[in-house]
Write a structure and sequence with these properties.
Length: 197
């Protein structure tokens, strides 16, 4: 009886906390768990730049398979955003993906009502950077050098280090692909988002 009485207020507090003005929804890369190497510092940077920002990590199969698991991740992401948007009608989202997570972002199909709630999209080391993909990244080449300038009218920042083995044409450097958490990209991403909300 006591547990039942206490669970109501706790659930209500959790619901209120989840309805922040802005929420980062991050999709991690291959073999990563939770927020992963990019999502963790990004979450901290956004909470600092825009106080009150909350974070949600999409849980999906991050194994090294890029068709079935990416499609499943996209469905999970779309379902989460639709549910969260219904729960918190005033909340806006930052959709972010690193490496395989960027592929999931590309594959995510949202209703126009949920799309309108996406304040910004961030992708890091996006393997589909040079592919013409549909929403939510309809121009993956936007902000070709986002650490130099993010002046695009679009709400997308695509971070791709020179030589990155996955996003740079003929790139061969794994180190470049792993550098986003420490090379200044996170701070620029947070500034980019702040300008969009």
């Amino acid at each position: 009886l006591i547990a039942s009485a206490l669970s109501g207020p706790i659930a209500e507090v959790q619901k209120r906390q989840s309805c922040s003005a802005l929420q980062l929804v991050h999709i991690s890369g291959t073999t990563e768990v939770g927020l992963g190497t990019v999502g963790t510092p990004l979450s901290t940077a956004l909470a600092s730049a825009i106080p009150g920002t909350t974070t949600h990590s999409i849980t999906y199969d991050t194994s090294a398979e890029y068709v079935v698991t990416v499609a499943a991740g996209a469905t999970i992401t779309a379902n989460y955003l639709a549910t969260q948007a219904a729960l918190c009608p005033s909340q806006r989202f930052v959709l972010s993906g690193y490496s395989k997570g960027a592929l999931v972002v590309h594959g995510t199909t949202l209703t126009s009502a949920v799309q309108a709630k996406v304040a910004a999209i961030l992708v890091f080391g996006d393997p589909a950077r040079n592919i013409n993909s549909p929403w939510p990244i309809n121009s993956p080449s936007v902000d070709l050098t986002p650490r130099d300038d993010s002046t695009s009218a679009q709400n997308i920042a695509s971070f791709c280090n020179s030589g990155d083995v996955f996003c740079w044409p003929a790139g061969t450097s794994l180190a470049a692909h792993l550098a986003y958490p420490t090379d200044g990209s996170i701070g620029v991403a947070a500034t980019f988002v702040k300008a969009k909300v």
